[in-house]
Structures are given as C-alpha cells and as structure tokens.
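Quick note —
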Amino acid sequence: MRKKPFWMIGVAVYVTYLIVFVGTWAVVGADYTNLVGHEVVFRSLDLPLILGAIVLVPAISWLGWWKAILFEQRGAGPAWTMWAVLAVMACMIAIGLVATDWSALTADHIALIALAGILVGFNEEALTRGILVVSLRGSLRSEAWVCVLSSFLFGLLHLPNALFGIGLAGGVVQVAFATLAGLGFYALRRVSGTILVPMVMHGAWDFAAFTRQASGTDVPIVAPIFQFGSYVVALVAAIILLRAGRIRQVRGDQLLSEE
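Predicted structure written out below.
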C-alpha cells in the first residue's frame, strides 16, 4: 500500500465521488423519476457513473489499495449466511428480469442500461465496500463499526436523490433501505472473500430494476416480499457474521493471555 488506510482518506474519496455524481446530475438536469428512458439514460446514468469511475480507479491505484479492496483478508462466519443473501437477492433479480417487457426495449437501449448496471455495481461497491471498508479498518478496531458505518454511508449516497424528484421523505426512505441492503453486500464480501461477488449482485439487481422501469411494466405483486425479505436476511446475516467474528476475537485474546 502506498498510503496507510485511514478514515479521512475514505471520506475524502467518498465526498469527491458524490460531488462529481451530483454535480453531473445538476448540469444535465437529471430527473430521478425518469433516469432510464431511451433519451435520457446515457446522460442521467452512464455519464455520471463514467465520471465517477474516473475518480475511483485513479484514486485506488494511487493509494495502492487494489488488493485490499478486491480481496477479503479477514475470517468470516457461516457460509450459509452468504447463500441466504444470494438466494433472496437472486429471486428479486429474477422477478425484475421476468417482469421486463423486452419487446419494448431496443438493443442499444438495453446496452446503455447494462453499462449503467455494470458501473453501479463497480462504483458503489468499490467506494463503500472497498475504499470505505479498507480506510475504516485502518482507523477502527471494531469490525462492527466498519460494517455499520460503511453500510450507512452507502445508504447516504442515495440521499441526494431527494433533490431530483422524489422529495426528502423519499430520499430518507431510500437511505434506510439502501443501508440495510449494504449490510447484505458486506456479508457477501466477508464470506466470499472478494468484493467481486457483491459487485456482480449489485449490478444485476440494478440492471433488472432499470430494464423493468424502462419497459414500462408495473412492479410485480410478489416483488415487495422479496425486496423487504432481502433487507431482513441482510440484517440477520450481518449480525451473525459480526457475532462470529467477535467470538473468534475473544477466544484468540484468551489464548494469547494464556501463553
């Protein structure tokens, strides 16, 4: 690592990313209620996400944090927690894909939405489950605080949506839901051993949501069940992982004290 992890570094990159993303939305006149239409998807999603990636990739390279961001070095808890999160998220993704009226979308429209999904998965995970997790671990001894703070800051990324068409109440609700989803993505990183798993699931989740919205179909009646179910599973998985980690730490401290 070129720079030792420290929380202020993570926050600085986080704020810079937000300024670039929100600033681009302000310049192009983005409307959160219509981000994925054929005429607006590039300027409303692809462009700010491309500019965000231009912030993140050089920052990670300059810091020398690629290995720490891509791969999990700490032990994790039960493997079933990862599979539980994957299962419920996969169901939500499948529902979105099945509900999409693919005949209403052109090939280039789908390609632009796919690019947005890939960039969302990369950018938001590299920033929150990557840069923030690594930087917070450099300043905090408690992995529980690393998990909670990185997930909350992930949720907070969605608050500016309130300025672009959904209002403060809608923005606050999104912060709460995204924070819970962030716990699930954190669990995927911890158990799988790589950030690539949450990147793929995050990108697929948004791609499925974007295509359904762009095709103009209604939210399937079963979707809320799996959506809120994913938040519950994410919360439970994170608690179990952190508790397992705490037990291992206590046992390790006890062994050291006996030597």
